[in-house]
Structures are given as structure tokens and as C-alpha cells.
């Protein structure tokens, strides 16, 4: 197919447009912005080479001259939204700085609900991803650990945020698909759970619910999960 490489390559090491001809009519930034807009509005499944080419007013084969593979398009998208991070001057308190980045990540993923599904180390070589990693390591300068361990810390925090947000998004999507209200659904499930716990078959669960009947403060759970992750590295 036109524009496709015969061997593996990194999209960022590739010219903006392969082949001869007139000056490119579109930039990677144009293509990425269009794909992000489609994914935000219609979901990641709506992002196809044909769809993005149509949105840009070009043929599908022409788009392959700019982006050889759909996976490369995904990489452009992840890089594009990664530009939304703010990198304030590190405070010297590495825990506070990393927590601030984690909160930004959570907000970013909610703005772009398709993002958790595309989180992969494969996309860690893009310009904005590298800038993010460099900033993370700068924030971690006060932490006396090898760089390899610091990279593990960044990966662990990213994993916590991604998993948490993916669950939030899945819950919200399920709630929107229900033929009744979320409150009705919750009431039925709580009633069922209460009956099961009261049966005596689950004494530890019963003790747990007796200790804290809820409701669960999801914001506090998110913060605790992050802080415990950070403290695990601080103890090394």
C-alpha cells in the first residue's frame, strides 16, 4: 500500500509525507486533531483511516502517505492530547508534584475517554510523551533512587490512574445505557447485597460493612491509592 514501510519504523523518525509530489496539504497535527475530535465525539471505534481521510477531504490512499498504519494514527492521537499537560516549576516536594500530575492525567483521560484504552509503553517515544517523562524525572530529583526505579514509579502511578479512570468511564457508560435511573439500580443492588451479607455465609464481608457502611468516598480512595503507591517507593 502506498506510503507503507517495508520494515518497522518509528512514525516520529519518518518524514511528514512520503513520496514525491507537491507540498503536503495537511500536517500530522491536522491529522491528529481530526482523529482526536472524532474519537472524543464518537469513540475510538469510529476512528478509521477511511473516516479520518474523509474528514480531511482526501482519499484513504492519500492518508497512508502521511500515516502508514492505523497504529501510527493512534500514536499521533496520544501525543496530541499529551500536549495538554501543564508543567509547573517543581516544588521540591516530589510526592505533591507527582500527585498533581496524576490528577492532571485523570482529568485528561476524562476529557478523552478513549485514552485509557490506548495507554501503552509503545506510545512512550512521542515528543510530548518524552517531555512528560522528563518532567516526571525532574520532579523526582529529590528522591534518592536509581532512574530505573523512578521510571517504575512513574509507570506504577500511570497504571493506578489508568485503571481507576477506566473503571469510572465504564461505570458511567453502563449507567447511561440503563433503562432506569442509577439510583434505582443502586437501591436494588444494595438490597440484594444486604441480604447476602446477612445470610451468615460471608462473616468477614459482614464485619467490613458493619465497620463502614458507606457511602464510599471515591475521591478519597483515588488519593489513598496514589499515596500508598508513592510511599512504597519512598520506603525503598
TrEMBL record:
Domain of life according to the entry: Bacteria
A Pfam family annotated for this UniProt entry: TetR_C_1
Provenance organism: Streptomyces endophyticus
Residue ranges of domain HTH tetR-type in the record: 25-85
UniProt keyword list: DNA-binding, Transcription, Transcription regulation
DNA-binding residues: 48-67
Official protein name in the record: TetR/AcrR family transcriptional regulator
Gene3D superfamilies tied to this protein: Homeodomain-like (1.10.10.60), Tetracycline Repressor, domain 2 (1.10.357.10)
Region (Disordered): 1-26
Entry-linked InterPro entries: Homeodomain-like_sf, HTH-type_TetR-like_transc_reg, HTH_TetR, Repressor_TetR_C, Tet_transcr_reg_TetR-rel_C_sf
Amino acid at each position: 500500500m502506498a506510503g507503507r514501510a517495508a520494515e518497522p519504523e518509528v512514525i516520529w523518525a519518518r518524514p511528514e509525507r512520503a513520496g514525491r509530489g507537491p507540498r503536503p496539504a495537511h500536517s500530522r497535527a491536522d491529522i491528529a486533531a481530526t482523529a482526536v475530535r472524532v474519537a472524543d465525539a464518537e469513540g475510538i471505534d469510529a476512528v478509521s483511516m477511511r473516516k479520518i481521510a474523509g474528514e480531511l477531504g482526501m482519499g484513504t490512499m492519500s492518508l497512508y502517505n502521511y500515516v502508514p498504519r492505523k497504529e501510527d494514527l493512534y500514536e499521533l492521537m496520544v501525543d496530541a492530547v499529551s500536549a495538554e499537560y501543564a508543567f509547573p516549576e517543581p516544588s521540591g516536594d516530589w510526592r505533591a508534584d507527582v500527585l498533581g500530575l496524576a490528577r492532571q492525567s485523570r482529568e485528561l483521560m476524562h476529557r478523552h475517554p478513549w485514552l485509557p484504552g490506548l495507554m501503552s509503553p509503545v506510545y512512550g517515544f512521542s515528543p510530548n510523551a518524552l517531555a512528560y517523562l522528563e518532567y516526571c524525572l525532574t520532579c523526582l530529583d529529590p528522591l534518592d533512587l536509581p532512574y530505573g526505579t523512578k521510571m517504575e514509579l512513574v509507570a506504577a502511578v500511570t497504571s493506578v490512574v489508568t485503571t481507576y479512570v477506566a473503571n469510572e468511564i465504564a461505570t458511567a457508560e453502563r449507567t447511561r445505557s440503563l433503562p432506569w435511573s442509577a439510583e434505582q439500580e443502586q437501591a436494588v443492588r444494595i438490597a440484594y447485597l444486604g441480604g447476602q451479607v446477612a445470610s451468615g455465609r460471608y462473616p468477614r464481608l459482614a464485619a467490613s460493612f458493619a465497620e463502614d457502611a458507606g457511602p464510599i468516598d471515591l475521591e478519597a480512595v483515588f488519593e489513598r491509592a496514589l499515596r500508598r503507591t508513592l510511599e512504597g517507593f519512598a520506603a525503598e
